[in-house]
């Protein structure tokens, strides 16, 4: 049975281009209502976050995100019916208002799982293990919203490193041909897991210029997130170019 619970709050503007002073809207998707309720309480206790709904299966998750337009979806992968991977693929493919679809953070009990990698490759932004500390959960959400660094970097890179090499499709010689020399440099620094601030320091560029280059890299390579840059680099055997 499909189950979803939108949480009614005072209406706010749905444009995310001008909501820096508004709480981050979070949807929680998990087939264990008690676990979802605990996460909702943690999120609602933060001044910069609000849980705007919970869902307990993939179909409900897709419906709910269309209704409430959150910035973040915390997505369990193992659910009956439409699973979390399939729901992630649908959510990240949705056209969103101005700044695109919600960012999906995968929830998993076992991080070294190909399903986790496939979700990241499909467009999820990061992963969280279900035994993560509250500070890790909140930090990963904030990093995912900001988009300035690879959220959940250590666990995320571990999963990508383990599974990405099995999906090689192109040769390193032509993989980055679409990028300018500067964009290629930024690509390789993102693949190392550097934040925008760290890239700016390494390249002696402004953070605004780095952000512009990151957007260009993602657009030209057809990627949705920083973690997809890391996966792309591993899949195409480009990590040897990264120092």
TrEMBL record:
Could you tell me which Pfam families the record lists for this protein?
A: GerE (PF00196), Response_reg (PF00072)
- Keywords carried by this UniProt record: DNA-binding, Phosphoprotein, Transcription, Transcription regulation
- UniProt xrefs under Gene3D superfamilies: 3.40.50.2300
User: Please, which domain of life does this record's source organism belong to?
Assistant: Bacteria
Spell out the SUPFAM superfamilies in the cross-references.
C-terminal effector domain of the bipartite response regulators, CheY-like
Q: Which residues form the Response regulatory domain?
A: 25-145
- Which molecular-function annotation in GO is an example for this chain? DNA binding
Residue ranges with Basic residues bias: 8-17
Q: Which residues form the HTH luxR-type domain?
A: 172-237
Q: Which residues carry this modification: 4-aspartylphosphate?
A: 76
Q: Does the keyword DNA-binding apply?
A: yes
Disordered as annotated region, ranges: 1-20
Q: Which GO terms describe its biological process?
A: phosphorelay signal transduction system; regulation of DNA-templated transcription
Q: Which named protein is this? A: DNA-binding response regulator
Native source organism of the sequence: Gryllotalpicola protaetiae
